Amino acid sequence: MDDTAPVLSFTEAARAGLTEEMERDPSIFVVGEGIGPRGGNFNTTLGLYERFGPRRIRDTPISERGFVGMCTGAAMVGARPVVDFMFLDFILDAFGELVNQTAKIQYMSNGRIAMPMVLRGCIGVGGSAATHHSGNYYPFFAHQPGFRVVAPSTPHDAKGLLKTAIRSNDPVLFLEHKLLMATRGPVPTAEYLEPIGRAKVKTVGDDATVVAVGAMVQRTMDAISTLEENGLHIEVVDLVSIAPLDIPTILESVAKTGRLLIVDEDYAPCGIGAEICVRIVEEGFDFLDAPVARLNGAYAPIPYSPPLEKALVPSSENIASAILDLLAQ
Amino acid sequence: MDDTAPVLSFTEAARAGLTEEMERDPSIFVVGEGIGPRGGNFNTTLGLYERFGPRRIRDTPISERGFVGMCTGAAMVGARPVVDFMFLDFILDAFGELVNQTAKIQYMSNGRIAMPMVLRGCIGVGGSAATHHSGNYYPFFAHQPGFRVVAPSTPHDAKGLLKTAIRSNDPVLFLEHKLLMATRGPVPTAEYLEPIGRAKVKTVGDDATVVAVGAMVQRTMDAISTLEENGLHIEVVDLVSIAPLDIPTILESVAKTGRLLIVDEDYAPCGIGAEICVRIVEEGFDFLDAPVARLNGAYAPIPYSPPLEKALVPSSENIASAILDLLAQ
Amino acid sequence: MVMPDPLDLYRRMLQIRNTEEQLARAYRNGEIMGACHTYVGQEAVAVGVCAHLTPQDAVFSTHRGHGHALAKGVPAQAVAAELFGRATGTSRGRGGSMHLFAPEVGMMGTTGIVGPNILQATGAAYAFQLLEKDEVAVAFFGDGAVNNGAFHEGINLAAIWGLPVLFVCENNLYATEIAFAYAAGNPEVATRATTYGLPGEAIDGNDVMQVCKAAGAMIERARQGGGPSLLECRTYRTRAHAEGMPEAGYRSQEEVDAWKHKDPIACHRAYLLNRDLATSDSLDEWEAASVQAAVDAMEFARTSPWPDPATATSNVYAET
Amino acid sequence: MVMPDPLDLYRRMLQIRNTEEQLARAYRNGEIMGACHTYVGQEAVAVGVCAHLTPQDAVFSTHRGHGHALAKGVPAQAVAAELFGRATGTSRGRGGSMHLFAPEVGMMGTTGIVGPNILQATGAAYAFQLLEKDEVAVAFFGDGAVNNGAFHEGINLAAIWGLPVLFVCENNLYATEIAFAYAAGNPEVATRATTYGLPGEAIDGNDVMQVCKAAGAMIERARQGGGPSLLECRTYRTRAHAEGMPEAGYRSQEEVDAWKHKDPIACHRAYLLNRDLATSDSLDEWEAASVQAAVDAMEFARTSPWPDPATATSNVYAET
Ligand SMILES: Cc1ncc(C[n+]2csc(CCOP(=O)(O)OP(=O)(O)O)c2C)c(N)n1
Ligand SMILES: Cc1ncc(C[n+]2csc(CCOP(=O)(O)OP(=O)(O)O)c2C)c(N)n1
Ligand SMILES: [Mg+2]
Ligand SMILES: [Mg+2]
Predict the structure, then answer these.
(1) CA B43 from centre of chain
(2) Of A215, A242, A81, which Cα lies nearest the Cα of A148?
(3) Which of B35, B157, B297, D312 is the most core-located residue (most Cβ within 10 A)?
(4) Omega prior to B244 cis, within 30 of 0
(5) Would you tell me how many other CB atoms lie within 10 Å of the CB of residue B97?
């Protein structure tokens, strides 16, 4: 990656991408609570109200179902809405609109109506946000046909993927983990797009493959640094795209390492790790020298108190020992 | 099973269970659209309005979010609501209430508030009901901690499980496949309860294990009858309980057969088959003589036209050939 | 506001009525599957409203949407073929009665879920305002939708942003068999407009001229930037909630008969004859022609090919 | 209706105010995490309403719920300990500020999601009616919730079934920084009651005696089977939306100052003194005692043990 590139935070990078796209295409508009003059609870739209005005940067009432259904209709006649949920938890009040309408209208209209719509929000456990502001929820949208889902882990990917999401004619969930928003990294000034559906190999290794999602990517990098001192070479794959999954990249890695661990903060049952596991079993069973392993957040609503919250999410120590267990098999 | 037991339809059996429980416990009430004098779109409450009156058999406006949230509050102070959605598709408008409230309040209150609530509805593909009346959705509720989910495939289990669901202090989804509602079978007159969380072995065999869900159970039985003529012995497991999963029963079968196919009408990604696969890989990898296989409905919204609708759902021919493929591995 | 030709209104109502009578027969024959909700008795509403719309204006309809689709200009053959599940249908048989999409004439869909179309019409209006177009959006919905959160949130959003959308509530007194008087704390719909700060009016939804006048004024207002309105059309469905459903005794025969006497087509026929706008012979001729066209539409559907199962998973995504 | 002792109302408001001032300090010290929304300026509402409730009556509150919890009788220590995340908190530290549950005194929860508590209060009232209990349910919610579908559906359900529930809207003019006048097509809340067919009244929410009178009558009515009511309390939060949030210039200093002059505690103090119901010395003594109690509550929380991480997954299900 270009080291001379300016360093931006995840949020700044995503905002730069949004700004570029809004400059390019006047049919793009953003709705959400506090995204107007305030610039968004997480500064996702800071300064954009002044730049694009109230019709394109629209503060809403607390009507999640209403404005999601509204944006669905706006997309049906040619506008390109971006829904900024602040916390993604609030998307659940619009779930009926999304699953029965947004996701199905392209199909039901036989492809004559497009559905260009971005649904963005803050996900994940951290900062004692407690159970109504800590959800992940992405398996819901990976299960239902009609959605694309991305969870970038770097500022670079945040910018490139948000631009791609906005240009997509499919509804795309753009997920921003609360622990990543302030993280910083190089972001090229020249325009670029990141494709939806591609995972990224972060470190090359042949002892085991670890696929990590979102905030778990850096935590996994921390975990393997200690292991590398002991001569273990772990291939870390940043999943990046939750729907569709980049199975070829994971398969290629597992073909080499024979061992796979999926690290996902979200709940295990019917989660993304389960889907990756079955896909690898279906397509690469003979590569496997050991059972595929999952490391997930504990199966409970997210508590507030720091020691409880901490206990539910995989730590780098948990990840390191899960890798060692996998290698011991 | 008792052959002298009277033969009832799936719907009659479930209704008998509901009636017994309502006779037993005056804190049970049912809400839904058309469940009053009309007796329910699927006769789920036929005759019960006359028997229990309007407060216990309550017709509602089209306010799914409203009455689900209402029932959540009623359960919090000691009533035992049963929500009858008619078509389960309508539950999605109440998804925020269910995931953020119903499923979390026992935990957030540290177990001081119970959540006895049954959510029942018709699921599945059939009869050209089209995309808004054909959903399955159960992986959503299997992913989120706090729910129990059952999908009985026989009148016997429908009655026993609905009674258990009503007595449970957890929110339980009771799913009734539209193609099963009219099917008939023996139902003992003596009271009985079926436990949540137990799968049932329908046929014993040692060549392969097939786990089937809901309407796929009978279709799988049809499929293996042809195979048995060719001397193949398939062990068919009726999953019955989607959350929690009865992994021990499946594991025991796979230990014997070494081969596993999961047949599920619902979508594959992050579905129930993926979760069963990863659990068996985690706990029974060495039992497996071949990759675990899934057979699911095609990944698309459900269309209306019979030839299209038929094309999306596994047929007994599809199941038979999937079994042969598995055996050929 | 230009008032449409009363004769065209009559022709259009006839087309809807006769097409649906044929669809109902086809349903009894098992040629139409799933749920089929006819619009019989409510034709004046769709026809009176859509008479003011261009093909670029966007209509969002309900589970009871055959009349809205036909009034918006979707060919009867395409509607019939869709209900017959054929490749020549509006969605090549994917949708059926509750999923009619014809964006080429601004028919943006019917829905099997009560409520969402109110929000989608609000959204189309948002796009029209954003992109500075002259188009307006219309949501048709029943009394049953009024108790749903979508009504509350959608109308409020349209009101605060002054969006060019008309909300047409077809109050036919029942949601399936549940009376609006039971389901709502207040039996009126139009007066609720004050709660959201937009104009509201209740009219006789069986009088196509009245619908035409009221809707025309509200649509013109929206087109000129005057914002949304709520129009309550008091009407009645004279057939069962859905074809094949028994009349479970939730409404009296007297009530049904009284409304049948207010049949919108019969009333409008009288209007035309009283004003010498047509002769009964000419109207009888149209009637015969309309029945024939409806029969032909069924035949078109009946003889159309089934969709190819290989296409069952196409168009789930735009990029595929 | 028996009017509560005005002195008790004063003591309770003091307790809420002083406890929250201490909580705000603890937040600045980093002893309280997450989001902390104070009730400062709105105390008269919770106190005036809850003065009429028994421990069996059920209250369902919002993200701004400390005042409701304290007014309903949850000990300040338990509230403070919960916000400190300690094992001695109302939910042993699981919930924090937005998830306060104390069913033993009828505090059925605060919520981090706007809307659901309106529905849950309706449901508790449904259960009370079904089980023929004398209890009533109360939902507190802000002006922001009024534009949400939960308001529309919940109030309608309560109205059509005559449920014993009181809906208390604390209209403090803003939802975060979004003015209700912008977010709603109609700036009034109480008048919306006619849309749902239940009684509604708008009052000065900073006058605890007025709140007490209005709420008392509505609660008595509900208890006697008279059904639900909607009470709009016009009030104001004088602190930021949440602790640590900047006042982003969405409201003028003049407006804030004007409301600070209408501070409910200062007004009620004047009321007590004017009527010789208390001496300023005695009120000063209570003030000092109240501050001390609040400080002690913080100390209790501060010195309480952290919850055991091993308990982090208990009580997800009843049967485990
Ligand atoms: C969210 C939702 N809940 C329930 C249904 C089932 N349903 C279909 S039509 C209908 C009644 C609709 O009544 P109304 O809105 O008055 O329209 P009408 O049938 O009278 O034209 C119901 C309850 C549905 N389609 N969607
Ligand atoms: C469904 C939902 N959307 C958004 C939020 C974020 N949020 C928390 S408080 C708040 C404002 C609430 O305003 P109001 O109801 O007036 O209560 P107040 O804060 O003024 O007491 C918002 C938008 C939320 N908690 N829930
Ligand atoms: Mg109706
Ligand atoms: Mg407010």
Answers:
(1) 18
(2) A242
(3) B35
(4) yes
(5) 29
Identify the CA nearest to A135 among candidates A147, A148, A146, A151: A151
What is the distance between the alpha carbons of residues A246 and A240, in angstroms, rounded to a whole number? 9
Query: Which tokens hold the place of A43?
Result: 């500064």
3-class secondary-structure state, position B74: helix
Ligand 1 probe mutation, B35, B60, B62, most atoms within 8 A of CB: B62
Question: For residue B168, is it left (φ>0), alpha (ψ between -120 and 50) or beta?
Answer: beta
- In the sheet with A293-296, reading across from the earlier edge strand, the strands are A200-203, A234-238, A208-212, A260-264, A293-296
Nearest to C189 by CA among D199, A68, B68, D156: D156
User: How is D176-206 classified by DSSP, letter by letter?
Assistant: TTEEHHHHSSSS-SGGGHHHHTS-EEEEETT
d(CA B44, CA B162): 12
Quote the tokens at residue A203: 């470190």
CA distance B116 to B112: 13
SS3 (DSSP) at A82? strand
Residue D312 buriedness (CB in 10 A; 0-12 / 13-18 / 19+): buried
- Are B37 and C177 in contact (CB < 8 Å)? yes
* Distance, CA of A260 to CA of A209 (rounded, Å): 5
CA distance D77 to D300: 6
Write out chain A residues lying below 8 Å of D178, CB-based.
33-34, 59, 61
Q: Is residue A16 scored above 90 in pLDDT? A: yes
Residue D1: the pLDDT is: 80
C-alpha to C-alpha distance for C65 and C192, rounded to whole angstroms = 24
User: Residue C229 CA to chain centroid, in angstroms?
Assistant: 17
> Is the pLDDT at A198 greater than 60, yes or no?
yes
DSSP C245: -
Instruction: Quote the pLDDT of residue C246.
Output: 87
Residues B188-230 have pLDDT tens digits of 999 999 999 999 999 999 999 999 999 999 999 999 998 999 9
Rg (CA), chain A: 20
Q: Do D111 and B106 touch (CB under 8 A)?
A: no
Active site residue A64: yes
What is the sign of the dihedral through the CA atoms of B130, B132, B138 and B139?
Answer: positive
Q: Name the token pair of C319.
A: 């990029």
Does the pTM surpass 0.90? The reply is: yes
Structure tokens at A123: 């996900």
Chain B residues 246-285 within an 8 A CB cutoff of chain D: none
pLDDT score of C320: 58
pLDDT in tens, D11-68: 999 999 999 999 999 999 999 999 999 999 999 999 999 999 999 999 999 999 999 9
Residue B64 CA to residue D254 CA, distance in Å, equals: 44
Q: How far is residue D308 from each of residues A175, D100, D272, measured CA to CA in Å?
A: 31, 19, 47
- State the alpha helices, DSSP H only, in chain B: 10-24, 48-52, 64-76, 95-97, 105-108, 138-143, 155-167, 216-229, 247-257, 272-284, 306-312, 316-328
- Judge: C120–A73 Cβ closer than 8 Å, yes or no: yes
D56 Cα to chain B: minimum distance (Å)? 9
Q: What is the pLDDT of residues C235-264, one digit of tens each?
A: 999 999 999 998 878 999 999 999 999 999
Residues in chain C: 320
On the question of pLDDT at D215 being above 80, the answer is yes
Q: Does C64 touch chain A (CB under 8 A)?
A: no
Nearest to B128 by CA among C306, C103, A76, C70: C306
In 10 A of CB A197, how many CB atoms? 17
CB-nearest to A79 from C115, C120, C127 is: C127
